[in-house]
UniProtKB/TrEMBL annotation:
Record Gene3D superfamilies: 2.40.50.100, 3.30.700.40, 3.40.50.20, ATP-grasp fold, A domain (3.30.1490.20), ATP-grasp fold, B domain (3.30.470.20)
Highest taxon in the source lineage: Bacteria
Organism: Parachitinimonas caeni
Domain (ATP-grasp) ranges: 120-318
Protein name: Acetyl/propionyl/methylcrotonyl-CoA carboxylase subunit alpha
Length: 664
């Protein structure tokens, strides 16, 4: 076994690999970009080396530099994780040539599966079933159109070099084919520098079922059963489970053996996944592609087999035999994985970025696992995948596992950026999901139920918000009193008592475009809160770690409170509500004096500078355009005046809060 390995990756997968390495007594070397200098994976590793600036091509994709670090640090092997260099045959070959073990398949196996078309040709020879389609070398528009007509519509055009759903187009009618082909080719060329495509029959109600395979250097190959990854948005997975609901023993063996045959056909070694598309209408399954690396969703397989797949990878890479052979493997219970992303389900799942102002994860046990690369206070940057964490749960059957998933999701609290948490909760609670009515159209079909409008604060939420604010005000008074010389002064009393005055506090909150008022009357030991026409008798304690323990009309409940300058967020049982406390008397004055807007609201790239130094501008005149997370943001003049300076040029990267220009 190795004594020291380098992990050529970041985030949760780097942390995941380090965890197993530690268990096996292997020393670990991390690498990092400037954006990750303080990241969790860097802290967990025994040593860490800087790669370069944040952009992947200047850091995590620098194969030669990574190999050099492996040599310098004495690492005997490199684990590539997923993404980045994990399926780069040149990197695998460079490792082999340098005498550093690449923890993955031989370069030749990566090459064989690198092109979807070539992989299909190989699989055809190995008698693995393929979706009816065309994957030939002749790429003339005419021939592709004829093939599409022959296959019959709808068809799916895929980029041969594809991944991540890029360059994929559904064509419903022959007359639309030429236009969609041109568009698929453009996207493929832009993303993969290769416009080769293949055409497949588009299955209208398929499931995505994949088989985990493993092979060693001594000729053994096994399958570790299947994962169902049918719940997808934008053709990408978001919730996976194992085993696949409704799978029969005979079908499992058939698919497992087909996957092992696929692996054997290319001399595979290590962990791999053979993806199949399963036609729910006919029960037929077809080879889609093989991923020659560890998959994001591997933990569900670990949960149902009781095996550590990273340990298997390390053993196989150090030339040991597979820990178990086929007849020693069995499925126990059921597992789910929910991917928690910084993304906006209501806005077509567009990635989001931001600061994790508050992050609380469910209690980890043998049945609930959280794989994450971030901690509270970290940021999700625009440079990498916006996945925050993976939540994996196990139960003795699907129903028990799903119940555990629901409670664990409700215990997850994230404040500071837009996430898909509420969406995942709706998904886990949906009766059609509980009934395992699975196919890749699930999310689109149930969209309205899965993405409900954000909840409005009712009287109870407002009472909790008021208690949180009152507790904060009281704490500030307390701090003021302890600083004062005269502790006995009635002016510093924290009881809310005031001479000749009914102790009264008016609290105002904004939520979207609505405003709410809570009148709080201090009574001995509690508050009377008037909210609209409701009156609530309330009291509460705010702990130092931001948990409010409240009593509302005799009902006890607790809620997490996250207070940022302009925002009060309350999180309770998986629901979070963000309110903006404001003072109506100051609001008018503030609007007039509003400044700011000259700083970058988030990290991004300056794409256009619209104002010149010396220009006279009006309030609201656009000065610069910043692009972040595929969206453009206009930076406008906060007041009329003269442009004194513009500090950045198009193409330059800026971090959040950077001053971009100045208007005087
Ligand atoms: P990528 O490598 O870009 O992620 P895949 O080939 O793995 O693309 O396909 C991604 C998803 O697209 C699949 O999981 C499935 O939901 C859908 N898909 C792929 N091929 C077909 C097909 N022939 N018919 C219907 N859906 C398909």
């Amino acid at each position: 076994m190795f004594k020291k390995i380098l992990i050529a990756n970041r985030g949760e997968i780097a942390c995941r690999v380090i965890k197993t390495a530690k268990l096996l007594g292997i020393r670990t070397v991390a690498v990092y970009s400037d954006a990750d200098a303080d990241a969790r994976h860097v802290k967990l590793a025994d040593e860490a080396y800087r790669l370069g600036p944040a952009a992947p091509k200047e850091s995590y994709l620098k194969g030669e530099l990574i190999l050099d670090i492996a040599r310098r640090s004495g690492a005997q092997a490199i684990h590539p994780g997923y993404g980045f260099l994990s399926e780069n045959e040149d990197f695998a070959a460079a490792c082999e040539a340098a005498g550093v073990v690449f923890i993955g398949p031989p370069a030749s196996a990566i090459a064989a599966m690198g092109s979807k078309s070539a992989a299909k040709a190989l699989m055809e020879k190995a008698s693995v079933p393929l979706v009816p389609g065309y994957h030939g070398d002749d790429q003339s528009d005419d021939l592709l159109q004829r093939e599409a007509n022959r296959i019959g519509y709808p068809v799916l055009i895929k980029a041969s070099a594809g991944g991540g759903g890029k360059g994929m187009k559904i064509v419903e009618r022959a007359e639309d084919f030429a236009g969609q082909l041109a568009s698929a080719k453009r996207e493929a060329l832009a993303s993969f520098s290769d416009d080769k495509v293949l055409i497949e029959k588009y299955l209208t109600k398929p499931r995505h079922i994949e088989i985990q395979v493993f092979a060693d250097t001594q000729g053994h190959a096994v399958y570790l059963f299947e994962r169902d990854c049918s719940v997808q948005r934008r053709h990408q997975k978001v919730l996976e489970e194992a085993p696949a609901p409704g799978m029969t023993e005979a079908r499992r063996r058939e698919m497992g053996e087909a996957a092992v045959a696929a692996a054997k056909a290319i001399g595979y070694v290590g962990a791999g996944t053979v993806e199949f598309i399963f036609d729910t209408l006919t029960g037929a399954f077809y080879f889609m592609e093989m991923n020659t690396r560890l998959q994001v969703e591997h933990p569900v397989t670990e949960m149902i087999t009781g095996q550590d797949l990273v340990e298997w990878q390390l053993r196989v890479a150090s030339k040991q035999r597979l820990p178990l052979l086929q007849d020693e493997l069995a499925i126990r219970g059921h597992a789910f994985e929910a991917r928690i992303y910084a993304e906006d389900p209501a806005n077509d799942f567009l990635p989001a970025i931001g600061h994790l102002a508050h992050l609380k994860t469910p209690q980890e046990t043998a049945l609930v696992r959280v794989d994450s690369g971030v901690v509270s206070g970290d940021s999700i940057s625009p440079y990498y995948d916006p996945m925050i964490a993976k939540l994996i749960v196990w139960g003795e059957n699907r129903e028990a596992a799903l119940a555990r998933l629901r409670t664990a999701l409700a215990d997850y609290e994230i404040v500071g950026l837009t996430t898909n948490l509420a969406f995942l909760q709706q998904l886990a609670a949906h009766p059609a999901f509980a009934a395992a009515e699975l196919d890749t159209g699930f999310i689109a079909r149930h969209r309205d139920a899965l993405i409900p409008p954000p909840p409005e604060p009712d009287a109870e939420w407002l009472a909790l918000a008021a208690l949180a604010e009152l507790a904060r005000i009281e704490r500030e008074r307390e701090a003021c009193r302890s600083r004062s010389n005269d502790a006995e002064s009635p002016w510093h009393a924290t009881t809310g008592w005031r001479l000749n005055q009914d102790s009264r506090n008016a609290l105002h909150f904004r939520h979207g475009d609505k405003e709410y008022a809570v009148m709080a009357y201090f009574r001995r030991g509690h508050y009377q809160l008037d909210i609209g026409d409701r009156q609530i008798i309330a009291s509460g304690d705010l702990s130092v770690d931001g948990r409010l323990y409240a009593d509302l009309d005799g009902r006890r409940l607790s809620v997490s409170v996250v207070r940022r300058p302009d925002c009060l967020t309350l999180v309770r049982e998986g629901t979070s509500i963000a309110l903006e406390p404001f003072n109506p008397l100051l609001a008018g004055l503030q609007a007039e004096a509003e400044t700011g807007g000259l700083t970058a609201p988030m990290p991004g790239t300056v794409v256009a500078v619209l104002a010149q130094v010396g220009d006279t501008v009006e309030i609201g005149s656009p000065l610069l355009i910043l692009e972040a997370m595929k969206m453009e943001h206009t930076i406008a003049a906060p007041a009329a005046g003269k442009v004194e300076a513009v500090y950045y040029q198009p193409g330059e990267q800026v971090s959040a809060g950077t001053v971009l220009a100045s208007v005087v």
